[in-house]
Amino acid sequence: MSDGIIEATDLGVRFVKNRRRNLRLREFVVRPDRRPRVDEFWALRGVTFTIKAGDAVGVVGRNGTGKSTLLRLIAGVLVPDEGTVVTHGRVAPLLELNAGFSTELTGRENLAMVAALHGLKRPEIAEVAPKIIEFAGDQVEAFLDAPVRHYSTGMRVRLGFAIMAHLPHPILLVDEVLAVGDRDFRQKCYATIERLLSEGRTLVLVSHSEADLRRFCNRGLFIDAGKLAVDGSISDALTEYGRSQRPG
Amino acid sequence: MAAVWQYRGVLGLLVRRDLTVKYQQSVLGYLWSLIEPLTVAAIYWFVFGVLYGERVANGAPYILFLASGLFAWLWVAGVLSEATTALTGQAGLITTVAVPREIFPIGRVIGKFVEYLAALPVLALIAVLSGSGLGPRLLVLPVAVLVQGVLLVGVALLLASLNVMVRDVGRSVRLLSRVLFYALPVIYPLTRVLESSLPTWVTVGYQLNPLVGVMELHHAAWTDAVPPALTLWSAGIGSVLLLLAGWWVFRRLEPVVLKEL
What we know:
Chain A is of the alpha/beta class. Chain A is 37% helix and 25% strand. The N and C termini of chain A lie far apart (43 Å).
């Protein structure tokens, strides 16, 4: 066994372009075949990497190249069609600005709900809730007993990030979240991420902000058209990414 | 299966959340779990008990016979209507939290069961007031509930995953639910079917529906009915088969479902 905390082996997932073709009765009966179909494309394929505990990994690539898909696979909310991804330890995911809130419930109820779904016991939640609320800021605190559907995107992200940051899980996945908050909140997030990293947690960060990536990450993955193009230092990944964006 | 048991705490949480959301903006709140079945029971009792003069069914007052089947049926109907959206309606949660996805449809079955439980005291009250009383036959009730639960979990797994693929499922189920209601001994006793002039293949086919046996078990818990062996066999075998089928289809569709949500 290596010392990897996240190990992806020949990871591949394919999507169907045409939604109507989704239900194929044949797939119930026979094993999914390996032949390519016209209406399918591989969002990710042949991706192999190992992330060591304590690594901070930046994932870069153009829009729609499979970065978020990769995070969802690591989070275990997507099942790969090929290969495997193994995580040794629980994952605190903040994906696509969505922490899994039920819009009809209040902020406080959602806090308890989401924290419990991520494996916190009730006394643990009671202990950590005040810290989460404080972290999320005055605005969220003022609306804590209002349904989350009345929250602005910023407020949802604040509360979502606050919850994820207070989970004891060793792996933190962050997808494009930092871009949403205001400057104050961003500063808080930076401080938190730095603290978590110094505690030895593992971070996988998807971002388009070169500054953020260079600030936190010691490793970079550059994903291009569903393939892992660079697996090296964050500078390598950013350089190669920059080069690929300049034609010629 | 073991994974689901491990996440029973989360399951309880989901059920409580659904109930909270359902009742939070209503004044009567929990009372709705009583008002709904009582109103439906009153309608059928008026039509068949009063207008058509059905006094006795299965050796018990018609109102008791009606309520014992109807309350159980409302659990079925509730699951049929809510299981279809168990995954599509909670996409935000399912695409962010890695829990066994089975718990979402199962949660809907349990949520509706809680409402059934909430109405049980009313059923007991009807039994006492109608003079039929409560007897040791009530020991059949847990069996009825168990068989029905197994069956409904299978159905819920099936409907929830299929509905992600084809949204027509929700609609078809609504229609099916209405047909099914009249194909079950809820407003009429099973003896009416068995003693009718229908050809044998129809009456046998009728009893092959596993829900017929489930309803008969419920009747047996509250009235003196003795369910025919055939209905019990279909209920027992049918519910297990449905559970296995539901589980299998759900497992099979899970990767595709997660991509679609």
